Amino acid sequence: MVSVTEATQIIQSIRLSVNTVHLNLLEATGRVLAEDIPADQDFPPFHRVTMDGIAIHHQLFRKDHPFAIEGTQPAGLPRKKLNNLNNCLEVMTGAILPEGVDTVIRYEDVHIENGTALIKLEHLKPGMNIHTQGADAKKGMTLLIKGQRLTPAEIAVLASVGKANVLVYDSPRIAVVSSGDELVEITEQPEAHQVRRSNVYSLRAAIQDSGWRSDSHHLPDKKELVVEKLKTLLDHYDLMVLSGGVSQGKFDFIPETLTELGVTRLFHKVSQRPGKPFWFGHTPGKNVVFALPGNPVSTFLCFYRYIKPWIARQMGLQPPYSSAVLATDFEFQPELTYFLQVSVRHENGELIAYPIPGGGSGDFVNLKDADGFLELPPSQALFKAGEVYPYIPFR
Ligand code: AMP
Ligand code: MG
Fold first, then answer.
1. For a pocket test of ligand 1, which of 176, 182, 183 has the largest count of ligand atoms closer than 8 A to its C-beta?
2. What is the pLDDT of residue 357?
3. Which of 127, 159, 270, 296 holds its CA 20 to 30 A away from the CA of 113?
């Protein structure tokens, strides 16, 4: 048995080489960027008109003075010029600002009659209604950095700089594997002695949320079938995340089978609750295997506490550390790290963690009310309100 700290160190020392791949922009949504993205031009690329109206030179402004309209500058046409500075040009949103003018007055503040514009404003702010060239970013400036997750906002930036294809971290070949004869597919109606194999879905969703893709497999509780199937999976996948079959049960064949198939065990059992029977190993240069206890909260906790930060590190990212203040006293006697299900609130600039009543290790329906786990160290049994502990968010 190892401590939570030791388990963390062992896991972090194991690397999986991750390739990069060019993907079409839309396919890249949700992936992690593997290149820095510079601005290929100024943003905006020209002095851009932001209102439909007229443009003049501000020094010639006078209220209710007639400006003859010399022409129109629509969006998408090359830059025109105001020849006589006593006149004005009509300008449209999105157009380049014409030469000779520096201020735009919106139609709402103008009265136009017989080819002449009268400005109804008392005062005018020079340069108004113009988004100046380079105001948002100068050409060459880094807009996105390697390691950023691509959400629709980043996709917008990539599209603006013309990145139709973008370099992202490729997903290793990942198998998420459930185990147990009591499990049925989620589309089935379980019989009295059965449950749906929900862990596969929580794990695959969590992996997808980290920017990687996975396949799903299942192992029955029969030794020969476990051997046969695991052998094939180990040949086909770089990363395996199993759930179930790692405890002391008569049908928990997974740890012994993994070692029989040549996977080096790096630890089995972590002094924690939930998730004590956690098994971890690797075949150097071939695969990494996380075998998690099947209890749905254990599986969930182990993913967020160990696997998610590990995935981040494989893509060169420093996983964020977070902490929260315990809101009420809490007692836990056994000499194990306890991962307490909490909901959190920001109060006076602090993150306050409220224990979820009944959030024991098996009750995963409570997870929908929780925001994360507070990590309570094994050295204490009494945890006082106001004390600060590491916080593992899953929202
Ligand atoms: P095990 O770790 O195989 O002893 O399983 C512990 C508990 O978790 C049992 O109640 C299992 O039925 C349940 N369990 C195991 N795998 C899953 C799964 N994929 N989805 C939901 N529950 C599971
Ligand atoms: Mg089982």
1. 183
2. 79
3. 127
